[in-house]
Every structure is written in structure tokens, then in C-alpha cells.
Amino acid sequence: MDSSALDEYLGTVPGSVSDLELLLWVLVCWALVLDIVLTAYGLSIGLVERNPLMRQALETFGLAALGFAKAGAVAVALVFRFLWPEYAIVAPLGLAVPWVLAVLANAALLASL
């Protein structure tokens, strides 16, 4: 496969987004929302955030801290994506994988209660 075909498949042609990249960005959005919702629910029933930095931020600023942290991560990923379009798939993948795992861990924890 030549590099132009690979670029086109991965959505790295300037101004384009591959179907796979779009799917990953949608997954990022769903995981972001679900993580905030599940975290909010867990905190409301007495569970405690295990990340000490986020725990302090939540105690100080409430759930807005989680929203700002997620928005900051998305902003960094978008900057990465536009600065290095040849690695376009890396940006949403780098958010989707850990956030989906976090959602699954949170859901499993809540289901076990």
C-alpha cells in the first residue's frame, strides 16, 4: 500500500476525517459523558474518587472539575490531531481507550454494590 492510500484510509488527507477516526471521536464523547455521569452517581451514593488530584479538585470545585479536566484532555487531543494530521487516529484512540476502560470499571463497581 502506498503512503497516499494509507493517508486517505487513516483520514490524514488535510481537511478529511476517516470513518474510523469519526467513530473513535463519537466513542470519546460517549465515554466522556458516561464517565462524568457514573462518577457523579458514585459520589452521590457515598463512593470516593480514588485519584487524589481529582478527589481534591472535586472537593474544591465540584463536578465542574471533572468536566474541565475532560475538556482539557479533549483540547490537547484536538491540538495534537491538527498539528500532526498524519497521526490523526492517535488522538481519539488515546482518549477512547482509557476512558472506555474507566467507564467499564465504574460500571462494574456500581453493579457490584
Helical residue percent band: over 70%
User: Would you count the extended β strands for me?
Assistant: 0
Strand % is: under 5%
Number of helices: 5
Average pLDDT over all residues:
90
How would a crystallographer describe the biggest sheet? none
Along the chain, the helix and strand elements come as HHHHH
> What would you call the structural class?
mainly alpha
Instruction: Give the distance, in angstroms, between the N- and C-terminal Cα atoms.
Output: 51 Å
**Low-pLDDT segments:** none
How would you portray this structure in words?
By secondary structure, the protein is mostly helical. The chain has one domain. Helices cover 76% and strands 0% of the residues. The chain contains 5 helices and no strands. It has helices spanning 3-10, 19-44, 52-61, 64-83, 90-111. The longest helix is centred in the first third of the chain and has 26 residues, at 19-44. The model has no long low-confidence stretch (mean pLDDT 90).
